[in-house]
Design brief:
Length: 147
């Protein structure tokens, strides 16, 4: 497991940071921009659709979702790309598990609703191994078999 700088906030001591990928979910949940930019809502909806529908609170979902569910979701592969810079940036995509391909779920550089694909309707990234991210935007990719 890769090392990530631990934030000294006491809330982090209550979370299972030993689960691969959990650190990034916690950072995403605590990112105040998420409260007005709903591009990452699908992350929380996939973890617990019922609780998300009731609360629309990513921190509540993260605190209450089963650790087994987080581990299972990590096996499916999710790739979050962030570009805080003022210029476009090329990202090399990590390999996908079991021959799956990356599908574009969210791209915040696009106007809604074009930047958000419906569940199961995420377009294939043309078997690409790189993605050019627009300035000050984020992208969510899901790994799944192409259909």
């Amino acid at each position: 497991m890769s090392e990530h700088p631990r934030v000294s906030h006491p809330l982090y001591n209550l979370l299972p940071m030993e689960i691969e990928g959990f650190y990034f979910l916690a950072e995403l949940a605590l990112d105040r921009r998420s409260s007005w930019n709903h591009a990452n809502d699908e992350v929380w909806r996939q973890l617990d659709p019922e609780l998300w529908a009731i609360t629309h609170n990513c921190w509540v979902v993260l605190q209450t979702v089963s650790r087994d569910q987080i581990h299972e979701d990590n096996q499916r592969a999710l790739c979050l790309l962030f570009n805080a810079g003022v210029e476009s940036a090329d990202f090399h995509l990590p390999p996908t598990p079991n021959g799956a391909w990356w599908h574009l779920a969210v791209d915040t550089s696009c106007e809604a609703p074009q930047g958000v694909a419906g569940a199961g309707d995420e377009p294939l990234l043309n078997h690409s191994r790189a993605y050019q991210l627009s300035p000050r935007s984020s992208v969510m990719l899901l790994a799944r078999p192409s259909t």
